[in-house]
Amino acid sequence: MNYLAHGYRYLDRPLFLAGTAVPDWLSVVDRHVRARSRLVLPVVEQTDNPIVKEVGRGILQHHQDDDRFHRSEVFQRLEGELGNRFRTVMPDPYDHRPGFLGHIVVELLLDAWLAETNSDLLPAYYDAMAKVPAQQVEVSVNQMATRTTNQLAWFIDRFRDERFLFDYLDNQRLLLRLNQVMKRVRLPRLEPSVVDVLQEARWMVAGEAPQLLNLQTF
Question: Helix, strand, coil shares of the chain as percentages rounded to 5?
């Protein structure tokens, strides 16, 4: 799952909302910093700090959502089908991108479907994120992560300024964002021919989106 799918239910709880984004923020800021459930849960149970507790609860929700989402039949089927579609434009059997794209494109296009279905949702998400005290979130996360970071608060501000979730609504802009991901994970850039597959993927995810979202409601 991606940012909006993780957080859209918690727009009235900005600190919890931030917690649902923390694992993905950390994967960009420093892939060696992890806020794993086994580290977060004891802190949430023992702390008297309401900010740390609320951020931690959001992190735990993220991991619960991801575990259920990624184990679901509908996600695994879409992941495989999209991987095969991307393989048609990347036929090299040693190319790792199709499988990788099959996974992340489902997640990104689920966010796009949510935003398209409710035009007020994405602006409301960023309005809620504007209320997040970035420095306090960083301090909280440093109490629960595998190591500390001094880059998280900076990235939260950048995340709010960039507003890149809007780019998922357009295939060309989505391709630009995917190529940023490719660079970060050290995979080759995607060619423009990928856009046709992205459009097919958009239709496929839209058809399964309600079921995908129901799987993470508990």
Answer: 75, 0, 25
In this structure, of 179-183, 195-199, 211-215, the range with the lowest mean pLDDT score is 211-215
Q: Are 163 and 126 in contact (CB under 8 A)?
A: yes
* 43: its two tokens: 């802190």
Structure confidence at residue 31 (pLDDT)? 84
Report yes or no: 144 and 56 within 8 Å, Cβ to Cβ. yes
pTM reported for the whole predicted model:
0.93
User: Cα separation of 138 and 152, whole Å?
Assistant: 6
Let me know: does 58 contact 163? Beta carbons within 8 Å.
no
The model's pLDDT over 10-52, given as tens digits with 9 standing for 90+, comes to 999 999 999 999 999 999 998 899 999 999 999 999 999 999 9
CB atoms within 10 A of CB 200: 14
Instruction: Give φ, ψ of 190 to 5 degrees.
Output: -90, 145
